[in-house]
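== Item description ==
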Amino acid sequence: MIKNYFKIAWRNLWKHKFYTFINMFGLALSIGCSIILFQFITYHLSFDTYHHNAKQVYRVVHRLTFSDGVPLYDQGAPLALARDVKANDPRVKDIGVLLRMHDINVTIPQSEGSGKKMFAEHENIGITDGHFFNLFDYQWEQGNKNTALTEPNAVVLSHGLAQKYFGSQDVIGKNISVDNKNIFKVTGVVKDHPANTDIKADLFLSLSTLKNIYPDVYTPMHNDWSFINSTNSIYVELKDGVNPETIEVGINELNVKAQGAAEAKPYHFMLLPLSEVHFDGRFAGVIQRSLLATLGVIGLLLIVIACVNFINMATAQSFKRAKEIGTRKVLGSSPGAIFIQFISETSYIVFFAALLSFVMVIVAMPVLNNWLQTQLSFNLFTDYKLAGFIVVVLAVIILAAGSYPALILSRFKPVNALKNQVGGNTQAAGFTRKGLIIVQNIIAQVLIISTVLITMQVKYLKTTDLGFNKNAVLMLPVPNNDKGKTDYLRNQLLADPAIKSVSFCYRAPSSTADKGGSIKYDSRDWEKFVGYTQIGDADYVKTFGMQLVAGRNIAESDTAREYLVNEVMVHKLGFKDSQQVLGRHFTAGDLSNNPGTIVGVVKDFHAKSLYTAIAPEYISTFRKGYQYVGVKVGSGNPSAVIEHIRREWQSVYPDNVFEYRFLDQQIADFYQKEDLLNKLITSSAVIAIFISCLGLLGLISLLTLQRTKEIGIRKVLGASVANITGLLSIDFLKLVLIAVVIATPIAWLMMSKYLQNFAYRIDIQWWVFVLAAVMALLIAFITVSFQAIKAAMTNPVESLRSGE
């Protein structure tokens, strides 16, 4: 019996190949997109969940609140906290430290005459000890996790770095040089970390070497609770049953004990669950859970749109299949048997749509991984979550898309069905069909509006005036900021007329660095807000195209003697006129409490992404802080200029790897999340519109077929092609227009909430909704009129002969 159902189903589907293809292709697109979105969501949800006791591990973060009441959140914590908590709180099972280093230069010692092997490493270096490996699961290929980092000058490498440095895995006992200062012996090798972790370290230096790595700041870094750096990661593992809130209270009590109540008051330390590190934007989270939820809803809506297509075409076909159903009932078929027959047809379509979607996903996955910066995979036989998801999705589609049409068709009365008198059922189905078309187009319209507004916001983020000139500036690392070296490099670079300016600095005016501290103005006490630090030489303003609005530029110095402040700083200090702060004393806690004088005011500039408002900033010279050099180049041959820069840089720093980056690209990286969201929403909108158009095309084809005789009569009576096209199109366009009216306020509310995340954002203009409405109506009209014109141009004699 079941075999017979499927055989008949296959014949019916093959008989109506065009509608079968539309249904199958639409479902394949929606299933394929839902699979990709499911993999993307589960990929992000899996970050750092594979560690053996992940639920008991927390990262110590903090909130800093001054008298102005504005909280500042940071992912860092002091090393002194780890020491004191370990010694005083028995509820903490273990505590691990990972001090991240942004950039290092690694040199592999070679035999004489064979040259040097040098490597530049970025954001994958950590300083730690064995306690860290007690908390986090690494597979040790060589060495012992308990002893590998016990001794000073020990290093553990990942499998990939060991192969990269030495060309083999026989590396235990071999040496590497870090920044041409410290020699480290390889004592262990771990397997490369998986993609789904936020701890991207590949090179682990022993914590007992910290004094040699940072000799100038080792004592305060090791002992002071107030020495907090964003690169310091402190992780605690709690014993079973311990409430993390009680540990937080204990940590803050230890802070008061160490610093005193007054000094400790602005700081509040918190425990962030390891499962939230990837998602909490306050502490450098990569992606928000709300975005994943939005993508999940989009995946569901794409499936809904495809199911709507299926239901609409199935109910529209009921008129053509009425006699078939009547005959089956007369011959003794029950409503249940007819229901199963139509569910079998649905199952066929969904099954082949799923196979087609698998091909789409396999072809698209490599491109998407590069596009989305992920490592998604597709393997039904090893990924049980994915297999379970697909089974559930297919079952839901079969029931959701197949049940309603099957119920409608199985309830036809045999006499009426044989006479094609099924108007009551088809009228009810028609109302349902119209409602589903409206729902379908509401979804597509919301996605269109969202795409337009997100694209506009991303463009605004990338093109808005930052308060300085980011174009044609190369950023190069400065391995050694000795005055003789920097002065020589500056002179050599400026000898090329294509180079306009050179500035040694800590960072460019806009960066991810979060450097700042307390400030003192004139004879007043320390201010109740944080001042943010920009370190640069006397050419900093010129090189980065900053604008002086009052006073003069700072003079060259190795220490902080003169200061520039921005307009926000002037206002935070309580002045309206920038001239009022000139010549006043200024002290920066972040620059060794060096007292100096404010000599100028610069126009406000964006030191951070446009998520945050412009903060009070100050600029001063401070040679110890120079880590980069900005090189402003003119128009001409960029390859020749870069080659000149490389040659001169390597003559000064022969033991380091030459690297550079353009500042505009560096700033563009601030908005990778927005680019990602824009790509995902745009792709979803295009697919939703395409699936909707497929549905409209199939539906107008069926309804035109049903009205063949009517069209022939109208043409005989003198109706033009335009008249008939308008007649067939107007009903669909009315439904699309209703969808536009409903979708507009929904989209406005959603996008208003999204834009609230940005301190600087576009205004939602009325023309965006008009444009989206015109696009929706135009796309619908083109889709519908294609088939309508074809029907209207048919010979009326043929229409009257073939009309049922």
The longest strand covers residues 92-108. Confidence is low (pLDDT under 50) at residues 421-425.
